[in-house]
Amino acid sequence: MTVPQQRASDLTELRDIIRQFSSERDWLRFHTPKNLAMALSVETAELLEHYQWLPTGADHELDDAAREGVRHEMADVLVYLIQLADHTGVDLRAAVLEKMELNRRKYPVDLARGNALKYTALGARATDRDAAQGDGDDRSSGRTDDSTDDSNNHSRQNR
Hints:
Elements: H1 10-24, H2 33-49, H3 64-88, H4 92-106, H5 109-112, H6 119-135
């Protein structure tokens, strides 16, 4: 994978705005990595609250007030994530590019497309597929009984 040329990102602009906001209020002294990670976890839980007990959390299941709440909680999550990265010296853009490359290796398209198996199970699927090709049994589709449940298909990227 070719890494795109480094440039100022929207995250850098947001980091600077957040730094100024916190500095003006003399809050930086409270922003330890532990405190920021805990606050990030709390805000993530508050985001989840908006989806609790909904069948899927699809947009049509939310009213305007819930959509606004989701938007604000997402902003809180991003603010704390940017602050945590800032205080720990993590370049989020570089970290995402690195993680996506790792995910590409763990989840090759020919094995991962259309299912929610974790990468450790995909390796077993490849072994089964390779063995099956010798006896004419074609299991290379990557489908399992639970792979038709789309609710799990979007979580694989962050494992």
